[in-house]
Amino acid sequence: xxxxxxxKATLEIPVEIPVDAINPVEPFLRMDRMPHIWCPGCGIGxxxxxFTRALLASKRNLDKVAVVSGIGCTGRVAGYARLDSFHTTHxxxxxxxxxxxxxxxxxxxVVYSGDGDLFAIGGNHFIHAARxxxxxxxxxxxxxxxAMTGGQTAPTTPxxxxxxxxxxxxxxxxxxxxxxxxxxxxAYVARWTTYHVKQLSRAMEEIxxxxxxxxxxxxxxxxxxxxxxxxxxxxxxxxxxxxxxSKIRPGARPSECDLTxxxxxxxxxxxxxxxxxxxxxxxxxxxxTLGERYAEPEVSCxxxx
Amino acid sequence: MVKGSVAISVERCKGCGFxxxxxxxxxxxxxxxxxxxxxxxxxxxxGQKCSGCDLCGMYCPDFAIYGVRDAR
Amino acid sequence: MHADPKGVLTxxxxxxxxxxxxxxxLAAGARFAAGYPITPSTEVVERFASRIPTVxxxxxxxxxxxxxxxxxxxxxxxxAKAFTVTxxxxxxxxxxxxxxxxxxxxxxxxxxxxxxxxxxxxPTLPAQADMMQARWGSHGDYGVIALCPNSPxxxxxLTVTGFxxxxxxxxxxxxxxxxxxxxxxxxxVIPGAxxxxxxxxxxxxxxxxxxxxxQPQADKVPDMLxxxxxxxxxxxxxxxxxxxxxxxxxxxxxxxxxxxxxxLAPLADERALSEAEHLEDAxxxxxxxxxxxxxxxxxLEMARERGIRAxxxxxxxxxxxxxxxxxxxAGRVKALVVPELNLxxxxxxxxxxxxxxxxxIPVSHAGGSVHRPExxxxxxxxxxx
Lengths: 305, 72, 385
Hints:
Chain A is an alpha/beta fold. Chain A is 34% helix and 15% strand.
């Protein structure tokens, strides 16, 4: 393109917006860090929009919402969120979040991380936090790969897919994250895709307003690596696939909702059950055995201690 | 009939096409012009159909567009 | 300020080092501990688990040391004083998170009750072979503080000191016990709470718009925060600027990483913790730490009985290494004898600091028991020749 052509390409879009309107997502972002690092057509930003709407709708006190991420593309969400946020080590967002929540139970602690981070290196921590029904809201953006490092095989990468570390095609069986979450004891388990923005926002709002270990898997495109290496088009092609292949089945059995390379995507809320939470169990056990001698935990100190 | 409009931050757009595809009333299309990074942002081709539902805003991974309902 | 009486078990006790360490943590204000069982350290958290419900706090046994070492940091950012406890194999697992604590300047305490290594080694027997690992175990350039108690009483006292130093320098502190000190039972006097000095967390007084979580004060240490107070701050292990935002370039790296070590400089110098005896006329000085210093004490007595002018320099704060003291000492004596329960670790630091001004003689021991006083005496005698 010649320089002249580029100069002429100033876009004029006739719009009439209310004078004081702003993008609803902006108050939740560290605008001094924009633009973000995510690729064209990546769905992580879409999930952040949904999270923003969910925070607004839940009416939670945002000073008390903390976001904890691990390492990876989705892990970068913590850095962009204008909340108390923690970008921790690979796979260890959940135990960090556990300590944070137990030190200050007033906090709404959201773990926002990717499939490799939460289920490969972080797998052990996921199942134990679910087992304990630790009051954490876990949002897992599943792009079926290790995107940040170049598209290597993840425990979620479906069979036959080409990845950076499986150049002849993945042959390992993949994890079914929602089944894992249910089996480990999660109180709330849902799967949506970045196509299902309304349902995803509502699900995020739901988990912000309830107690217990809540898990939402969000399928998202990785156009630069997953899509490109497998000649699956770009982000929009992935979104169209999600639209076409998704079947909303609330209450479906998670173990029957495996994901494959091109097959059906079962989405919906699968598990929503009451289980006693970790702190509830702790309190009840201690008061039962110690009675009056039990001292309520005062873990967080304000500087006078 | 509910009316609305969209605001587009041209320089943030990375031309992914989500907003164009998923606008329920087909208000948008990718323009032939491009921003300073070489992406084709959307423009409004049928503003009358915009309800201000903000689905475009929810889809946009780059926070480059949002919809608002017009004040009555 | 002084300790919160709720956590102070005032009185005269007959307990072992592990138990005393737990009491030190409670006295220091620790109200959160996360741990994983590993011999010979487990008693520290077992006691904490049994004490904390009546003091008012939380113990959680995590699924592994990786989880324990980061859970305590989550708790610190939630406002707690927190610690974890382990031994060699667990210490190795915790290394990434020790680096995270150093990089994010998270004040917390890691207790390592050292045992024979490497690998599974000698789970129930003493060694001091993690000393270099305590300093260098995580990747990259960073600094930590490490303290070496040599008795159950010191396990109490120095744990309190460890917590205080963690707060003062916003750094992870390594309590380097060993199986012998941890499992030996001795008299431990715990004073009244008003007699125990505690360094409070230096929370900022600035409002959110002005405060920068990684902006150092004059002492090169930034003020602290906790989640939930409306500051909307960010913490990352990526190289970051004063705002805490990732800033991955050469200038920020140079500025930030150097400061992580520089802020600890006073401890290598005038604030180094040590104990000395008979240095005025010494020709040979035994430099030791931890349980070995107890054996060395006997060897020194025996040397003096033989007319050798032997002196003692006991390292209490091993990291940052007390360079200045050792360098001075090396200028005045003939030899520095360094017995350790390892094949030579801190002796290399002594050598480095001595700069050839005195002979540096290691007395190594692969671990599994303590030295015999005669072994150390032999080295002293030969050094004096």
